[in-house]
Amino acid sequence: MATYDLVVIGTGPGGYVCAVRASQLGMKVAVVEKNATLGGTCLNVGCMPSKALLHASEMFEEAGHSFAKMGVSVPAPKLDLPAMMNFKQQGIDGNVKGVEFLMKKNKVDVLKGTGKILGTGKVEVSADGRSQVVETKNIVIATGSDIARLKGIEIDEKRIVSSTGALSLEKVPGRLLVIGAGVIGLELGSVWRRLGSEVMVVEFLDRILPGMDGEVARQFQRILEKQGFAFKLGSKVTGVEANSKALLAKIEPAAGGAAETIEADVVLVCIGRAPYTDGLGLKEAGVALDARGRVQIDPHFATSLKGVYAIGDVVAGPMLAHKAEDEGVAVAEIIAGQAGHVNYDVIPGVVYTTPEVSSVGKTEEELKQAGTAYTVGKFPFTANGRSKVNQTTDGFVKILADAKTDRVLGVHIIGIEAGEMIHEACVLMEFGGSAEDLARTCHAHPTRSEAVKEAALAVGKRAIHM
Ligand code: FAD
Ligand code: NAI
């Protein structure tokens, strides 16, 4: 029977990063993984494959629509979908192998099988009808999340798909109906629209991207509509019937009322994700869940059972890979007796569409609700020189600062490369910086990041190029 300092159940970004950090801190570590490959949702069916398809489909669209105006004359691009899927798979394989390498390099044992907690210090690992029990001083649950299902709508991953099926469709659907205008719906909707689908998105709320700044969401919706997206807001899908030719989705106003039927070839259900705790034996072991089925933890990631911790999508907070990673590092440090910590006020969120949307800190709606007095500095990419010469002027940077102290409380960007540009705001906010600090920081010219500096200047009503 092996004895470890730490056994981590799950090898997504939370689990494998936790294992590496714990090993760096001198612990003897094992990870348990039930999937054939390491890396969890993120590497296998989440962040990475979706970004590969977003990149490839964007290149396809650029070649078809943007090259000519720059004087690059190419014949109309032809889609080779199997080759594009192969490109995606190569990306997955490369990253998964990278995690295997990291486990070896850090001398982390990989135990293949389903992990079940038998009590403090004991994990049973079962695979192919055989099981072993490993002893360990500490356990970290990093089992992530699974797709949320819609009652009465059976996902077959062929015609009615979750994100997993939508990453591997065998042909471009003529009509794609997306249920849920959240991050998955808009990212994967973008992929298939670029490749030729007519995309309609049905959203329960009266806005897209709930949780993002309202002004950003409204402008982003207009941009997506210009690209060809159709939105049905304030609506819910109550059922999907299939015949041999099409899917017939029944749609009702969210508040109730007359139903209509919309035809589609593929329906993508993306209404959120649910914490994954199946098979872990939590109830029997005495690990408490919260009202939403997430593993309940204290501020130091400790569960109700001594020596058992939890991180990532399976606990409360945004379901994001970088949040899971940072929690993985923090809990390893806490177990090692250090002061591991995650600053939940500064976790960026990015939607990897074209243009991208990025955000960190408070939205205007949140500041209003909290009664915080704030100032707004906004700068459009139409006034940014680099964006003008590249003819990529959609979007703006918006900075929200405390009216009294000028401390930056939130930054929201729509625009090409917004996902890269948000990080100077994250660093600034980690240091408690002000809009003036940002405005006085020299930014290279010509870059799109100059729009961030100009938005910071605009907080003090002194933007130069506007
Ligand atoms: P997971 O990555 O879900 O990993 C959990 C692992 O635990 C899995 O490998 C699972 O097999 C294993 N496991 C579960 N139970 C057991 C058990 N009992 N025994 C053994 N192993 C077990 N986030 C971003 O930040 N950026 C993005 O661009 C992004 N894109 C996404 C796109 C899609 C389509 C999806 C679905 C998600 C996306 N996410 C993105 C979210 C991101 O994937 C998750 O937040 C992240 O993977 C959570 O990491 P985790 O370590 O908590 O869990
Ligand atoms: P989401 O929570 O982002 O969006 C779900 C949407 O569906 C919401 O707008 C919600 O109001 C709507 N909805 C819920 N029930 C509905 C119904 N019955 N009918 C119509 N609409 C309904 O969830 P999504 O897009 O499924 O993504 C899951 C998670 O994965 C997210 O939490 C996200 O953080 C993560 N993710 C992150 C990405 C990124 O960081 N770029 C990319 C993809 C996923």
TrEMBL record:
Catalytic activity: N(6)-[(R)-dihydrolipoyl]-L-lysyl-[protein] + NAD(+) = N(6)-[(R)-lipoyl]-L-lysyl-[protein] + NADH + H(+)
Active site: H445
Cofactor: FAD
Species per Swiss-Prot/TrEMBL record: Bradyrhizobium vignae
Lineage: Bacteria, Pseudomonadati, Pseudomonadota, Alphaproteobacteria, Hyphomicrobiales
Protein name as catalogued: Dihydrolipoyl dehydrogenase
GO molecular function: dihydrolipoyl dehydrogenase (NADH) activity; flavin adenine dinucleotide binding
UniProt EC number: 1.8.1.4
Additional observations: The active site is a redox-active disulfide bond.
